[in-house]
Structure formats: structure tokens, C-alpha cells
Write a structure and sequence with these properties.
The protein is α/β, with parallel strands linked by helices. 53% of the residues lie in helices and 17% in strands.
Length: 298
Amino acid sequence: MRRSIREATVGFSLLAAIASAVGLSFWLRGISLGRQNWMVKVSFAEAAGLAERSPVTYRGVLVGSVRKVTINPEAVVAELEINHPDLKLALPAIAQIGEASLLGGEAEVALISGGKSLPPGSANPRSKNCNPSVALCNGATIEGSTGPSLTNVTALMYKMLVETDQMKLLSKVSTAASSFERTAKDTSAFMKDGQSLARQLETSVRAAEPTITNLNSSSAHLRRLLAALDNPKTLQELQSTVTNAEQLTAKWNAVGGDVAKLTDDPRFMDSIRSVAEGLGKFFDELYPAQTKAGPTPR
């Protein structure tokens, strides 16, 4: 009898331990046998950090967990188990993957309802009367997105820094190109002005050539005249010629311009010849290459 009681006690203790272990396992997995949980499928393009038993929240309150994660070529599908049977979410609704803190931590899924609140007395998600066109019902599939995280923020900041550096470089290149263009335009304008000035100088030189030629000729005449006057013999002959010319003028005045009397006077004719010879020698002294006349025989 005592042995039977002892065996029964051991058996009941073993069953209690097993039941406690099963209950603890269900509790750790977020499964409650006394509640009516409902399921939602979420399709993510990316689901970094998402895993089974990741928490599911609504407005910061824990309402369930991730039951299963399936990967296919098109997307990552997560099955969410919601342990609040009276949670009523109006459509449109999305699920966003985030982190418990911006500095990192366990990934969690946040349910977000974008529609107006459902009226009181609406059917629960597991109810057959749940309207899938206005409310999130059991077994529905919604779209998912990735919220801000330390990795995303770091990547975004790095991208912004790179773009900023590129914009600065492009701005510097643009400024340098503008400076080069302005320099090229200024150089072109300077070259055009220089060419115009050169053409004006060339025209001025051509216009001044006759004047320069006349000045050179006049200078040559003046030099020859000065050289002739510097010659004592030529100067004496020129003075004699002037004296003869004065005598001719006096005789002309004396006879009153009578040509017959003048031509009959031998001294008058000698004076004419003397004047002609003196002028001829003077011009021969000035222009030796152009004057070929010799002295007139007396």
C-alpha cells in the first residue's frame, strides 16, 4: 500500500514537471493556450536582423512575436503571431522592421495602421464577420518596410558625405573652367586689340613714309648747301656773283630798260656771263651729279 502511494506520488510529480516544462516552453515562445491568437503574413524586400521570436509591437506595446521567417527569390515572408485577440487595426496597415534603439539591438516588427479607427462593436480579427476590406483580419497579408537603424543612418550619412564631396569637387571644377573661359576670352580680346593696333601703326607708318622721304631729301639739300657755303672759294664766287648782279641791276636802271643799249655795252654782257658762271658753279657745287654745264668761255 505504501509502495503504491509512493509510486503514485512520483508519477504525479513527473507529470507536473512535464506539464510545467511544456507550459514554460509555450510561455517562452509566446503561445498561450487560453488565448485566441491570430496570424498575419508580411512581405519584406529586405529583413535585416529579423528572426523567429522577434517581438511584434503596436504603438510601442508588445502584442506578439515572429513565428516563422521564409525566404524566397522575390521577398522575405514573415508570419506574425498576434496574442491580442481584441486588437483591431484599420486598413491600410503596414509592418515596419526597426531596432529597439537607434544604437542597435534586437530587431522588432512594428504594426502601423494608416486608416481611421474602427467603430465600436466591430468584429474581432478571428471572427467570421471580420471585413478584410476595412480591417486587418486573421491570415491577411500586408506589405513590410525597413525603418531607420544605425546601419541605415550610417550608410545614408556616408552617401550624403560622398555626394557633398562630389558637389564641392564639381563646384571647384566649374569655377576653374569659368576662370579658364574668362582668361581665354580676355586673351582673345587682347590679341584682337593688339592686331588692330598693329594695323593702325602700319597704316600710320605708310602714311608717314612720304613725309620721311621729303625730310630726308630736304636734309640732303641742307647738308649740301651748308657744305657749299662752308667752302671759302664757293663763298667768294657767290659774293662776286651777287656783286655782278647788283651792277647789272644798276645798269638796267640807268638805261631805262633799253635792250639795244645794254647789248651794245660789252661790260654789261661780261657781267651777265659772270653772273651765269657764278650761279652755275654754285649749283654745280650743290648738285654735282645733276649739273653738267661747264664754265662759259669768256
